[in-house]
Design brief:
Blueprint lengths: L13 E6 L14 H8 L14 H4 L2 E6 L7 H17 L3 E6 L5 H12 L2 E6 L19 H7 L3 E11 L10 H5 L3 E4 H7 L2 H7 L6 E7 L21 H9 L5 E8 L10 H15 L2
Parallel strand pairs: 1-2, 1-3, 3-8, 4-5, 4-7, 5-6, 7-8
Bound molecules: manganese (II) ion.
Manganese (II) ion binds next to loops.
Length: about 290
């Protein structure tokens, strides 16, 4: 996008924020390099969106806020730094579009967002529900952020939609928590069979509500997005995820993040390129 680096949030309406932390990964590491590579690939993004008839850079003052200062040796300290960094931007009146980093970063971002807006509705594009209780005895990881978010009262019961879930889980009861919190789910299988109407049906309930959007690049099939930490086959195409982002138009989006881009596992930089495009498409529905 070749946007200027402006670390003064009061100058901005939307701040693009890098969060180069992957201390919450459980399998392949590498998303700490996500912001860097998405920035590089964003150089080819042009401003006008002919599909949505919008130029987000004319509509809002948008710039690259830079990366938050994470602590690669401590997830707790990193969470404090992320929450504080995001809170500073929100206090100045800007919305944030964050690029991770692994999915653990969504928890401290949500903590800051909820302090400003109150409990939020969440739309999560992801192969995994990230609602597990713990991994290796740890409550904080990229597999647990939304479990913690529910427990901390950051999310509205019945106000979470997950799209793209697929692959194997550990057991039959892995979806019990989601059911108890009335999480709306459109699996990849269902989306492949029924298409966009299966998602639109749920989106009605999000109209007029403060909605936070989190996009895990692993929602896309590894054929299109190989550079990610926990790849799952049977996912979406590049076009399907763009279509899904377009379907968010008209919602009251108060912020978003795009996570789990792992450049060391990428091929021909296609994952970072897709991520840069999806970040742009997200800005177009802000
Ligand atoms: Mn995830």
């Amino acid at each position: 996008m070749r946007l200027p680096h402006i670390p003064q949030p009061e100058e901005l309406e939307v701040a693009l924020v890098g969060v180069p932390f992957d201390g919450g990964t459980t399998y392949r590491p590498g998303p700490r390099f996500g912001p860097r590579n998405v920035r590089v690939q964003s150089a080819i993004i042009r401003p006008w969106n002919p599909a949505l008839h919008v130029n987000p850079f004319a509509k809002y003052r948008i710039a690259d806020f830079g990366d938050l200062p994470v602590n690669p040796l401590s997830i707790e300290d990193t969470f404090r730094r992320i929450e504080q960094g995001i809170a500073t931007v929100l206090k100045a009146g800007a919305r944030t579009a964050c690029v991770g980093g692994d999915h653990s970063i969504s928890l401290p971002i949500l903590r800051a967002v909820v302090k400003k807006h109150g409990p939020v509705h969440l739309i999560q594009f992801d192969a995994h529900n990230d609602l597990w209780d713990e991994y290796f005895g740890s409550k904080y990881s990229h597999g647990t952020p939304f479990r913690r978010a529910f427990e901390e009262g950051l999310l509205v019961d019945g106000g979470v939609l997950q799209v793209g879930l697929r692959g194997q889980v550990y057991g039959e009861d892995d979806f019990d928590f989601a059911r108890a919190r009335k999480v709306r789910m459109v699996t990849a299988e269902e989306f492949h069979k029924k298409g966009l109407p299966a998602v639109r049906r749920h989106l009605r309930a999000f109209r007029g509500k403060p909605v936070y959007v989190t996009l895990d690049i692993d929602v896309v099939d590894p054929a299109y997005a190989p550079g990610t930490g926990t790849p799952q086959v049977g996912g979406l195409t590049s076009y399907q995820i763009i279509e899904l982002v377009h379907a968010l138009r008209g919602l009251n989006i108060i912020g978003c993040d795009l996570v789990e881009v792992s450049p060391p596992y990428d091929a021909g930089e296609i994952t970072s390129l897709l991520a840069a495009n999806l970040l742009y498409e997200l800005l177009c529905v802000f």
